[in-house]
Known about the structure:
- By secondary structure, the chain is of the alpha/beta class.
- It has a single domain (about 10-260), classed as NAD(P)-binding Rossmann-like Domain (Rossmann fold).
- The protein has helices at about 20-30, 45-55, 70-80, 105-130, 160-180, 205-210, 220-235; strands spanning about 10-15, 35-40, 60-65, 85-90, 145-150, 185-195, 240-245.
- It has a seven-stranded parallel sheet, with helices on both faces.
- Helix 1 packs across helix 7 (about 220-235), helix 3 packs parallel to helix 4 and helix 4 (about 105-130) runs parallel beside helix 5.
- The longest helix is centred in the middle third of the chain and has 25 residues, at about 105-130.
Amino acid sequence: MSEPERRGETAIITGGAKRIGEAFVRALAEDGWDVVIHCNSSRDDADALADELRGQGTGVAVVAADLADPAAAAAIVAAAAGLAPLGLLVNCASRFVYDRLEDFSADDFDTHMAINLRAPALLVQAFARALDPARGQEGGPDAALVVNLLDAKLASLNPDHFTYTLAKIGLEGMTEMVARSLAPAIRACAIAPAVTLVWGPHSREDFEAVHGMNPLRRGVAVEELVAALRFIIATPTYNAQTIVLDGGQRFLGLQRDVSFMVNR
């Protein structure tokens, strides 16, 4: 395989060792980015991915950090030292634990907020401080980019996964606030997919039963999330917007999370 043409910029991807985060890392490396792969407990997967990409000529750093720790953001951004200048932050990592308004605990609330909202905010702050001051200025590099991974359920709310959903609502609002606050140095967008991969305690059969539960009868694929990310990167005037990938599932007005729509 020939080495990709170097882009001359570095992308940070949280949760980059597995699943959707890994797909983002691989796509960005293919497109010539250096990459910082953040992980928490998946260090072996992150290191294996990094070794593979280094063999293809990609500049890679791996950093393991618990996003519930306020110090994690600075450590993740610092891991980019020695790579190309920073140009992209993808907040992909997320905590997804079930609760409802009737039974959520203060600990669950705080942990969801810490990982799904506070950590992305601190990462944007550290990312902005580390950027080339010429970003977005006349004669300088284009605006850097922040992409936040949301959830298509925000387009049609239901009461399941209460504290997770509240954190994602906050992250959606933060996306616009980043775009307003940090232009012209940074633009910010989001991707909001419906269920894309097998998750939690659910089986492959459960997943297949609900994956295409939308008017198009077609489930969201990881490749579509990658395509959305590439579109956002390639479109420098796309700003403060969210790409929703749900096949129109929001039109169904589901009263429960799709994971509870399995017929057992």
